[in-house]
Amino acid sequence: MDNSGPKKTCCESIRDFFTSAKFLIYMGHALSTWGDRMWNFAVAVFLVELYGNSLLLTAVYGLVVAGSVLLLGAIIGDWVDRNPRLKVAQTSLLVQNSCVIVCGILLMVVFQFKEQLVELYNGWILTTCYILVISIANIANLASTATSITIQRDWVVVVAGQDSSMLTDMNATVRIIDQLTNILAPMLVGQIMAFGSHFIGCGFISGWNLCSMCLEYALLWKVYQKTSALAMKAGQKEQQQELKQLSPPKDLENGQSPEESSQPLMNEASVVAKPDSPKQHGCCYQVTEPLRTLKAGWVAYYNQNIFFAGMSLAFLYMTVLGFDCITTGYAYTQGLNGSVLSLLMGASAVSGICGTVAFTWVRKKCGLIRTGFISGVAQLSCLMLCVVSVFTPGSPFDLSVSPFQDLYTHLIGESTLPEADHSLTSILTGGNTTTVAPAEEQPPLQSYMSVSLLFAGVIAARVGLWSFDLTVTQLIQENVIESERGVINGVQNSMNYLLDLLHFIMVILAPNPEAFGLLVIISVSFVAMGHIMYFRFAFKSLGSRLFLCCSPEQKVETVDSPSLPTTV
Description:
mainly alpha; 24 helices; disordered C terminus; 568 residues
């Protein structure tokens, strides 16, 4: 006898899916990332255009953004942990979109009245506008970091509940959305600027963010309403006031204030208990509180049992083997035109999506930790093609040319224009190199074997890269306690930016194409070190079972202890 309820019709199932919290998160994330990708692409173009096709403003902006996340990542994460989820999501959303809108309007003014601004106060008004644009854009990026932490690293976990498979599917879907928007959004805004103007591009981005902000705000509220668990954040006074139906916590009965119970990092970082409230401390205590939070966040990150897994992901950022301005610029020096590069970037995106899909399948067959190990082996194997490309015909690799020669000549001002065109400027300008050294003026290569092997390895490695990235992301989601989820992910972002900064410094020190092969070897070495760290983590967690293929039902994928880890 069938006691189950009536089965849902196809229309009801479709309606339930499109009104579910999971789908609403996908929609909100798609809107958010679309706006982010458009802005990140456009702001670099705007800054280059405003400063006379110079990379100075773009370099300053990149340095400010990376340095800010590096220094403030832990503090942003701690702020996410201390405050109610809805408040964090709404505040970061409003700040991010408002800053982009203000930046867009300010850039429209600059583009429209640049000639007049140059003449005012010897150009200081224009310089002030540049400073404001970079500063406000940096605030927008910090708010975007907070949004990413709270939605992708926290809300997704709560919506998935205890269902690890659902969490895997949600992470994979979010990453596919990232991949698609990373291709389509720059294409859209690029066409608008190409057929219109930079002024119109700024206006379009500002208008998009205004409309997107309203829609995302409504979607966040709907997700919050549909998922009651989002309102229950442990140890938060604000949440206790919001959920009046809950009984008073035992901490109050024992004489402990809610403010003390809502500061796990600060309490754990201090061995001696401090019963006095922060208000009783002097001004110096209040001023140095961010520094203590920063230190406590890094200490908590170090004490996590997934520390080596997180470090392994950060080490993958120390590489020139990606589709950024560096690799694109090198490709131009090797005779590839914009059309070929766009096709290669499309192939790279397809490869990344394949890696995302492969992640869900391999995890079901082998478990989460083994998926990371398999992904690392796959990525490193594909990158061997890049190492081989350094020594094949057509490679400009030449150890007899000093990698610091172009840097030295730039510093002393003795380099000629043709020499400069083939060094730092050529590599870092990406698509803008055609304005400095047109492709038809470059001598044709005798062989394209080297650059072909290089990009074949880079594209193939994206499958393992994105699968590995998703593995580490889910390991952090599942093995970091809820009260420290924000700060740990904030420190992880800081580590990622730190290694990313180092790879740019590496290129600045060795900018000539003859030294790019050396950068490739160093990059692959860092990727290998990262995967060695992950192997250490995986072997410590599973032992010899790491090399055994077993079904997920055997539950061998626990990390050290079945319970959630605690920091020392």
